[in-house]
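Structure, all two chains, one model.
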Amino acid sequence: MTAHAALAGGEPLLRTVLAVPGAHCAGCIAKIENGLGGMPGLVAARLNVTTRQLTLTHAASLQVPALVEAVGRLGFEAQALSAAATSGPNAESRRLLRATAVAGFASMNVMLLSVSVWSGAEGATRDLFHLLSGLIAVPTVAYSGQPFFRSAWGALRHGRTNMDVPISIGVLLVTALSLFEAMTGGRHAYFDGAVMLLFFLLVGRVLDSIMRDRARDGVTALLKQSAPGAMVTHKDGRSDWLRAEALQPGMRMLVAAGERLAADGIIESGKTSLDLSLLTGESLPQSAGVGDTVHAGTLNLDAPLTVRVTAAAEDSSLAEIARLMGEAGQGRSRYVRIADRAARLYAPAVHTLAAASFVTWLLLGAGWHQALLIAAAVLIITCPCALGLAVPAAQIVAAGSLMRAGVLVKDGTALERLAEADFALFDKTGTLTLGRPELVNARAMPEAAKPVALALAMASRHPLSTAICRELEGIVPARVDSLVETPGRGTSGLWQGQPVSLGRSGEARDAMLAASLVIGGAEPVTLRFRDALRPDVPATLEQLRELGIPSMIATGDRAASVAAATRGLGLTAQTGMRPQDKLDLIDRLQRQGRKVLMIGDGLNDGPALAAGHVSMAPASASDVGQNAADAVFLGDSLLPVAKAVVAARRTMRVVRQNFVVAIGYNVVAVPLAFMGMVTPLIAALAMSGSSIIVVANALRLRSAAQ
Amino acid sequence: MSGLAILIPIALFLGLTGLAAFFWAMRDGQFDDMDGAGMRILIEDEDQ
């Protein structure tokens, strides 16, 4: 805080969040926080290892690229996160956690009092204990029950019913009746049952919510593809780094080679080639010059550009994709969770049973008071305690296992839908392939030329140079003097007195990219590159086939390059597809009764990812792709796709077993309740017993993804 | 039986203290970085 005061001097402070994917240990915390400590203009740095995010408080004069560079100097790759990605801790989870803490506190204390009643407290002592229980339970139900009451009211208002309707009715009725019992000195009060029920159910809700948060944090840490901002030049010659949200039409942004565009615009100066693979799936770079329209998310390959930002016109391809996604996502929201499907059958049955027991006992001559007590016992015993835990417990254990295996699942319904998938649709560029060029003929280079090639490649950020660096890793680069990178042509320099260069090759045929390496007067060597397949593609497709899921390729790329890349996979492919075409294809398949698993990465796949019954995206995908997908898999290998399907199916098997346990317990307990033999003690034992069995069964899924 | 008049309020008070401590810890952000909290005790902060 002293630094804060010293800095104040009228200058406003900013908060910037950087994603630091490489930070994972105590050493990293110390290195980053202490390393940044002395930086002028920086007030505070705090690294969150769980979310891999570094929160910096700094003076406005300290700009984001400088911060990223400072973290880079400490040896960590950092990316500025857009404001939308860093909304802070989830308010929903916190509310649920608070409600659970209150319910936990209340159920422990009420149980303490109940145990003394069960062990024989009589007369005035029992009445006092019942009243005390009521004093604790009533405010608890009013506070902790809110998530259920709200959801039940929402469902009822729309003429639907869900799991929360019988829960709410049961809890409210039982609490009211117990209150009456406590006031009139009755023998049985069910406060402990009502509060414990809320506690167990809230634990289920918290688990569900934590799972969604964890996956969201994981995905946030990966949001890095589209530029979070751009360097903008003002009329008076000053330049400033602005976040993407702050960019406005008419501004001029400078885009360096190797940067992604942060907004749509028109090129004002510069001539370069652009990598549009994120937008169109097309793997071959396209050249662009003054006057050409360029889109956000495009990677600038060769030379710096000045781009005038244009308004996000309604007819721009980005707006079109956003519109398609909005429409495509509507189908998904109609999916009904398995727990709610169960509740549709369960709720009417429970209410009928309770009403029937009330009427039966009245007819048998019992007083309305005793009949109502028995009906309440039926309600509390049938309250879907185990049923409420059955689904989230299984899903969170499976999602944890998948996360360790490199698959981030965004929510529980994603696992339900993944288990149902019976047709897989793959995008090509970036999904079946790595989406980056790989050197295929390293052997064409003489051994002596390799260090020279590496030295030349290291001087450039062009994707082909990066591919050479990757291929030649481990070789010591040669000493090349007067290195120059000429945008659009390549790098050149002097090695042992002879001119050497690595640059554009005349022959670039269909899917093949090529570069030419010239050393002195020797014959030029042509290096060929190809967008290689991900590892384990055939194995993954084979596993999917064994699971009864046939696969197909749907891509925006041209037929020739698709054939070159996927020869030998035995897949049918549709090529040259626009986003709308992919949507139509999915629509056609789903009308045939297929449940489509869409796997894609690009912006152009966004609508298809949103429309598919379930969808997955690689971690290298555009953030549109990652946001639209239900699950994101890490690493180069495609195998996690098959693993996720297997794990999802195992999860659903366990969920069904849990349902059987929960219903089996009802089959035993309901007749007892119906006969009026369930005391609060039996209700408490039955409820916790069945919940523990269900959770223990779910824990078997810990190795679901191995 | 008169012991109850003292013991029950004590039990409730202790329980409420625990609940209040949990609420305070949550508001204070102590659950925001569960992995990092365990690591921070290993950092030596003499050479800052």
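Residues 34 and 40 of chain B are 11 Å apart (CA to CA).
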